[in-house]
Amino acid sequence: MISPTAERQLDSFHPSVTQRIISKLDSIRVNPHLRVKRLSGSPFYTLRIGDYRAILDIQINVWRILVVDVGHRKNVYAGGR
Fold first, then answer.
1. What are the Cα distances from residue 29, in Å, to 22, 32, 35, 63?
2. What's the pLDDT at 81?
3. Whole-Å CA distances, 61 to 47, 52, 65
4. DSSP strand E in the chain: where?
5. Which residue among 19, 42, 56, 76 is buried most deeply as judged by most CB within 10 Å?
6. Angle of helix 15-27 relative to helix 4-12, nearest 10 degrees?
7. pLDDT along the chain (81 residues), means of 10
């Protein structure tokens, strides 16, 4: 699942960047904990995609990964998460 905010962010990127991000997100569907890191002091996780990051809310009990935020590594953590 992708939040409306993350959807707008993906739409603002160059199509090749968006495709790379979507491809990486698809690759973690089976076992997300192999490739993500927990954000310090936060319930969210981060997935590295080159210079971009996806902020994720992983809910294993309902088998759901929610993409909360997507952006360049310089800007994505500024949201106070």
1. 11, 6, 11, 9
2. 44
3. 20, 27, 11
4. 36-38, 45-49, 52-59, 64-72
5. 56
6. 140
7. 92 94 91 90 93 91 86 78 44
CATH architecture of 4-75: 2-Layer Sandwich (3.30)
Token pair listed for 73: 């590594």
- Of the candidates 47, 59, 43, 56, the residue with the CA atom closest to the CA atom of residue 20: 47
Q: 43: which DSSP letter?
A: S
- Tokens 């962010």: give the residue: 9
Token pair recorded at residue 31: 């076992």
Domain definitions of the chain by residue range: 4-75
Alpha-carbon distance 32 to 44, whole Å? 12
Length of the chain (residues): 81
